[in-house]
Amino acid sequence: MAPEVIRGEYQGPESDVWSLGCTVIEILTGKPAWQDRGADTLRQIGYSEELPEITVPIPEDLRDFLNKCLRRERSERWSCDQLLQHPFLVSCSPPSPPQITIDTCKFSPRCVFDWSVSSSSNQSTLEIYQFDIKNSNAKQRICKLASNSGANWESEGWGDG
C-alpha cells in the first residue's frame, strides 16, 4: 500500500507504481517488502522516510528501477510510460514466440486438471474424481494449448446442439 493511500490522500496510477516496486521486491526476496507488524507497519510506510529493504544482491539498473517506483512523494515517482523506457526493461529481450505446428492445434482439454470421471455408481463423490499426478505435466499441457492460429470450432466435441 502506497504512503498516500495510508494517509487517505489521492490514489492514482502513482500508487500502483509504488505497489509494482513492492511486488518486484517480494518476487526477488520471496517475502513481502514490509514486515507485517500491523499498525506500526502502516505508520512506517505512511509517515516515515524509510523504504523497503532489498536483502538480495541485484543489478544496479534494477535497483534504479525500484528507486523510481518507490519514491516517497507520488509526484516524484516515474509513470508507467517512463518505467517502460527504463534501461532495466529496455535491456530485457522478449522471449521468442513458440513454434506452432498443426499437431499443436489439435489438442483441446476435455476435463479439468486431468481428472478422470469414473462411471461406477458405487463410488462416493470424492472417489469419482481421481487426479493422476504421475501423468500430469502442467507445462506440457499449456504448451499444447499455446497457438496463434485460434480455435478450431469444427473439431470433434463442438456440436451444433
Record the SSE blueprint.
Elements: H1 3-6, H2 13-29, H3 39-47, H4 60-69, H5 80-84, H6 87-90, H7 102-105, E1 115-117, H8 125-128, E2 129-131, H9 138-145
Antiparallel strand pairs: 1-2
Q: Give helix % range.
A: 40-55%
Q: What is the subunit organization of this protein?
A: single chain
Order of helices and strands: HHHHHHHEHEH
User: What kind of sheet is the major sheet?
Assistant: 2 strands, antiparallel
CATH topology of the largest domain: Transferase(Phosphotransferase), domain 1
User: Low-confidence runs (pLDDT<50, min 5 residues)?
Assistant: 125-134
Number of separate structural domains: 2
Number of helices: 9
Per CATH, the architecture of the largest domain is Orthogonal Bundle
Describe the structure.
By secondary structure, this protein is mainly alpha-helical. The protein has two domains: 3-90, Transferase(Phosphotransferase), domain 1 (Orthogonal Bundle), CATH 1.10.510.10; 102-145, no CATH class. It has helices at 3-6, 13-29, 39-47, 60-69, 80-84, 87-90, 102-105, 125-128, 138-145, and strands at 115-117, 129-131. The chain has a two-stranded antiparallel ribbon with strand order 1-2. Helix 2 packs antiparallel against helix 4. The chain is elongated and about 55 Å long. The termini are far apart. Mean pLDDT is 77; it is low at 125-134.
